[in-house]
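README: folding subset

This subset contains proteins for which both the sequence and a predicted structure token string are available. Records are stored as plain text. Below is the entry for VTC domain-containing protein (256 residues), shown exactly as it appears on disk.
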Amino acid sequence: MDTNIAKTLTSFAAIGLAELNSKAAMLERLDNKYILPAEAFRPALERFSEHFDVLEIDGKRAFTYATRYYDDNELRGYYDHHQGRRKRCKVRVREYVDAGFSYLEVKLKDRRKVTVKRRLKVNDPANPLNHQAVEFIEENYRDIYSEGFRKLLQPVIAMQYERITLVAKEGGERMTIDTSLHFDAGEVSRAVQPDLFIIETKSARGNGIADKILRGLHLHPTKRCSKYCIGMAATGAVDRQNKFLPALRKLRLSGQ
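--- output ---
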């Protein structure tokens, strides 16, 4: 992580995981994503300290996440997002490396364009998409879209990154800050420069305190900034990627 960003984080008050979840679980939310270099992000982070606390567990404030995304043979999860379809679903297994456990997560968009995230703890890491998991995906897809999921999933890309989580002191809003991203698909690996950050703001109306601070500094959201889609495009795993080119240009990816 950029050393100046790490230093700025020391000015934040700490909050524990249980209190964070009670204040702002944000499993249903409107979100905005920003790709920012450290020098542009630091002034915003300094202002965030007045309004947000930082998640701290056992003295740590940055946590390693390892995530594997699943899609079908036609990559319909990717192309539904690329084409901007309302009915779209992303399925992933996220390992919280520092804590030593994993969750199956299903992300969908409802009729209000609100992101709905449902998750199930993984009890069999060797077979995360077992019968129980498949039923969980089907149940939640049908709950949102009133039709069957009808996709046979397989792992398509893995990624790892460090995440910092902020929660508003008054609750009801949270923000994630991701850095040191690394994508692996097949034999292709790509990495994001460590002085670049993907910031995701999550609030009930999509215009929270963090968005107002960023906008006041003339920093604006990056459209079509799904880490799954960016990773698939960056590693050449897909044929069509033009909708994600603006985000890719900002990330300055390296690797082979």
